[in-house]
Amino acid sequence: MQHEALFPPLKMGALEAKNRIFMAPLTRGRAAKPMFVPNAMMGTYYKQRAGAGMILTEATGISTEGLGWPSAPGIWSDEQTEAWKPIVEGVHEAGGLIALQLWHMGRIVSLAESAPSQPAKRRLRAKRIRLRAGRTTRPRAR
Hints:
This protein is an alpha/beta fold and about 140 residues long. Helices cover about 25% and strands about 25% of the residues.
């Protein structure tokens, strides 16, 4: 089996990845102290993986209303933005590229966050929808 196609550089507009191996985003849940702020442990984790052509970070919240679970990093505050900088610089110093995956859990979490002490008044109900490949069931916000 030949793997040579994985190792040549890849030009992507103004960026050039040193190889064609991209690290998929993985949920780490390590932004815990203080909550939602990237930290040195995350910097070590990403720097160790700088050999990939491009790292796509874990889901990074754009607002408190859009978070899906605790300990996910955010990017909505100055403190969080400043905390990401040494992580990005560390990956760059190790010769890697890194892209932040912006994240919002969508309407359902917004409903739940609007009244965290009470369950959301809206419920999901399954509804049949037709797709090109056939029929499937999907929850629909009501």
